[in-house]
Design goal:
Spore Coat Polysaccharide Biosynthesis Protein SpsA, Chain A, 2 domains, seven-stranded mixed beta sheet, two-stranded antiparallel ribbon
């Protein structure tokens, strides 16, 4: 019994209200893939569009005779990370390329990403060096965020926010994606020992519609950094992470307790000679309790890690889909 040959390349493209962008994007993808040998597929993920995006995707699929196009429709707008996670889960290629659906990424750069992968890299990221976005609302916050991510995670690349990436599917499918975690794929991939590279890619100004993201997204990304730091540095030893968090509370507790014994317990004030103050000891006990809480959380995390059978792929649920996986195939 013969089996189907494996697909070498999958494109995963999230779209949200991009009805005008879909037809020219399809033409650019077809042209780009024609120059790349091997078998391909394109997975569009409609992230709850309310315009005619779904109809344009169906027309594009029906008109495509060369490249198989699969369409996943989410029940509502879950966000870019959830859309990418749904597409990645169902992608069948050995290499997965992530691509924005707004025509700002250029599909012609896919061949260059794959060429870089053949040099021995598992993750190749796009760098929008000449980015065509507003400076104050997009480029400046992005530069600050990229610097912070590189500083905290130790994986220094210029453009974490560029969706255009080529990644070994065996690595990508084992990375849990939630919140805005798709931006940190290169940092998380280093846990597996993946080699990460970066190349300059073309970035076009937006032709249709408007950006779905603003400066408020930067705040959310910064809040995710603490989680990323724990994942990158303490994923196999969470007790160390919680131990580090407990140290400031141990220091404060010791300081207040020392102050109490050095003269803060006995209150020699005229209004109450001989009274004993419980303020400093109470504060010290509170901080000791907080420190113990973090240590206990670390031990509990170690227990969950050692005894649990959780797999990162479980974070990507089929409940996102409006249609069944069988219907989406």
């Amino acid at each position: 019994m013969s089996s189907k040959p494996p697909i070498e390349l999958s494109l995963v493209i999230p779209v949200l209200n991009e009805e005008e962008s879909v037809p020219p994007l399809g033409a650019k993808i077809k042209e780009a893939l024609a120059a790349i040998p091997g078998t391909h597929e394109v997975v569009f993920v409609d992230d709850g569009s309310t315009d005619a995006t779904a109809e344009r995707l169906l027309s594009l699929r029906d008109a495509s005779a060369d490249v198989p196009i699969r369409i996943l429709r989410l029940r509502r707008n879950f966000g870019q990370t959830a859309a990418l996670a749904a597409g990645i889960e169902r992608a069948r290629g050995r290499v997965i390329v992530l691509l924005d659906g707004d025509l700002q990424n250029d599909p012609a750069d896919i061949a260059r990403l794959l060429a870089k992968m053949r040099e021995g890299f598992s993750v190749v990221c796009g760098w929008r060096r000449r980015r065509r976005d507003r400076f104050l609302s997009r480029r400046l916050p992005s530069r600050v965020a990229n610097w912070l991510v590189g500083l905290i995670t130790g994986t220094r690349i210029h453009d974490y926010g560029c969706t255009l990436k080529a990644i070994d599917a065996a690595i990508l499918k084992r990375i849990p994606l939630y919140s805005d975690m798709h931006r940190f794929i290169p940092a998380v991939a280093t846990i597996t020992g993946a080699r990460v590279a970066e190349i300059e890619v073309t970035h076009h100004p937006r032709r249709f519609g408007k950006s779905k993201y603003g400066i408020s997204r930067t705040i959310k990304v910064l809040l995710d950094l603490m989680t990323i730091k724990m994942i990158v540095s303490f994923v196999t030893r969470p007790s160390h992470w919680f131990g580090v968090l407990s140290l400031p509370f141990f220091f404060l507790a010791s300081t207040f307790l020392g102050g109490a014994f050095l003269g803060g317990v006995y209150d020699p004030s005229p209004d109450g000679p001989g009274d004993y103050s419980v303020v400093l000891p109470s504060i010290a006990i509170l901080f000791f309790a907080l420190a113990f809480h973090f240590l206990a959380s670390g031990l509990l995390s170690e227990l969950i890690l050692k005894m649990g059978d959780y797999h990162p792929r479980d974070a990507v649920s089929g409940s996102y889909l409006r249609m069944s996986p069988e219907a989406a195939a």
